[in-house]
């Protein structure tokens, strides 16, 4: 299929892009890496009258440190994130997550801003954003606002972003000392999307107890979520195989898992536990070795 006809704009500055999305409102779609939008347009599930290609706005493709925060521009590709020394140093969980997305082609074109804005329930980044307590910055013609990751993902492919807003960057706080992280996922064999994915960050105290744990789960429900019951079970405890197994059993408690041709609800629930346990084990080993 080929997409329906549309008018194409390629602004070179954020201000120009904001003016265009404000002028055309719901009839306009932003185009970043095109890895999700173009297939939808080809299937005519998305039929925008105007396409605003933000790919030429260079200022949106950067990775930098700012006041102790890691700041990643929306147009940074998955490959940029997976291969950045700064990301590996400051937020290795994100580099690991990016390396698990799709295939080489998708990672070379797809962007972090596009993935978060699209908010596919099986996307990988959202789990890491939740586990890292990321902040997401959105710009509009009236200014910018910052949205905590825990409030960003609202429902199936629905986020806090309003018409006329462009996601410009994500901000990741510095990890406490003695922290470790890991992302583990069950891949859908054809696309690589997560049937269940667990992003874990654990921090240890001076005597080796778990000071805090953050577990973001994707692929399981209509939106990604923090496994707060499991996190509470882990906090303040000395890690042991039994503790990790018991906490992992709880990660999908209170959640209604998705069921589709790829996996039943029961299978997704079980997979979430298995992959959360694997991510916890890896994150703890890294925290103990302090290798992120
Ligand atoms: C074969 C294949 C396999 C894939 N496998 C995986 C996988 O395993 N894991 C995974 O997580 N993803 C996967 N993806 C999706 C991929 O990561 C996409 O790159 C991503 O979902 C969208 O990013 P994009 O830059 O391509 O956005 P686009 O397709 O250009 O845009 C997607 C949506 O976001 C909006 N948008 C884009 N940028 C912004 C912005 N800055 N502000 C506001 N709105 C914006 C667009 O208007 C559009 O609605 C796969 C895709 C394909 C084609």
Summary keywords:
Uridine Diphospho-n-acetylenolpyruvylglucosamine Reductase, domain 2; 26% strand; Enolase-like, domain 1; four-stranded antiparallel beta sheet; 292 residues; five-stranded antiparallel beta sheet; 35% helix; binds flavin-adenine dinucleotide; Uridine Diphospho-n-acetylenolpyruvylglucosamine Reductase, domain 3
Characterization of the model:
With 292 residues, the chain is of the alpha+beta class. The mean pLDDT is 96. It starts with 6 loop residues before the first strand and ends with a helix. The protein has a five-stranded antiparallel β-sheet. Strands 11-12-13-14 form a four-stranded antiparallel β-sheet, sandwiched between helices. A three-stranded parallel β-sheet has the order 1-3-2, covered by helices on one side. The chain has helices at residues 14-24, 37-42, 78-83, 85-90, 92-99, 104-109, 112-118, 125-131, 149-152, 228-234, 241-249, 265-289; strands at residues 7-9, 28-31, 50-53, 63-66, 69-73, 135-140, 143-148, 153-155, 158-159, 166-172, 179-187, 194-204, 210-218, 225-226. It has three domains: 7-53, Uridine Diphospho-n-acetylenolpyruvylglucosamine Reductase, domain 2, CATH 3.30.43; 60-172, Uridine Diphospho-n-acetylenolpyruvylglucosamine Reductase, domain 3, CATH 3.30.465.10; 179-287, Enolase-like, domain 1 (2-Layer Sandwich), CATH 3.30.390. Helix 10 packs antiparallel against helix 11 and helix 11 (241-249) runs antiparallel to helix 12 (265-289). 35% of the residues lie in helices and 26% in strands. It binds flavin-adenine dinucleotide (FAD). Flavin-adenine dinucleotide is lined by residues 29-37, 74, 101-102, 106, 110-111, 113-115, 117-118, 120, 123-125, 161, 166-167, 191-193.
């Amino acid at each position: 299929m080929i997409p329906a006809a549309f008018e194409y704009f390629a602004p070179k500055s954020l201000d120009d892009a904001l003016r265009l999305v404000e002028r055309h409102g719901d009839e306009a779609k932003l185009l970043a890496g095109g890895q999700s939008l173009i297939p939808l347009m080809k299937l005519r599930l998305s039929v925008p009258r105007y396409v605003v290609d933000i790919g030429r706005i260079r200022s949106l493709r950067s990775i930098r440190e700012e006041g102790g925060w890691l700041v990643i521009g929306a147009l940074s590709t998955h490959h940029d994130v997976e291969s950045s020394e700064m990301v590996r140093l400051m937020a290795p969980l994100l580099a690991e997550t990016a390396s698990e997305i799709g295939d080489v082609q998708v990672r070379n074109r797809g962007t972090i801003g596009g993935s978060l804005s699209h908010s596919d329930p099986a996307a990988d980044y959202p789990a890491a954003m939740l586990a890292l307590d990321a902040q997401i910055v959105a710009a509009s013609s009236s200014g910018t606002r910052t949205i905590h990751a825990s409030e960003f993902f609202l429902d199936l492919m629905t986020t806090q972003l309003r018409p006329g807003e462009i996601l410009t960057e994500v901000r990741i706080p510095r990890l406490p000392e003695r922290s470790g992280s890991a992302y583990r996922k069950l891949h859908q064999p054809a696309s690589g999307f997560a049937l269940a994915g667990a992003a874990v960050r654990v921090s240890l105290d001076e005597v080796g107890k778990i000071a805090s744990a953050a577990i973001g789960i994707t692929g399981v429900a209509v939106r990604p979520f923090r496994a707060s019951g499991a996190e509470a079970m882990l906090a303040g405890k000395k890690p042991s195989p039994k503790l990790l197994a018991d906490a992992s059993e709880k990660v999908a408690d209170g959640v209604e898992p998705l069921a589709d041709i790829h996996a039943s609800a029961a299978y997704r629930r079980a997979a979430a536990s298995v992959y959360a346990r694997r991510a916890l084990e890896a994150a703890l080993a890294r925290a103990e070795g302090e290798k992120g």
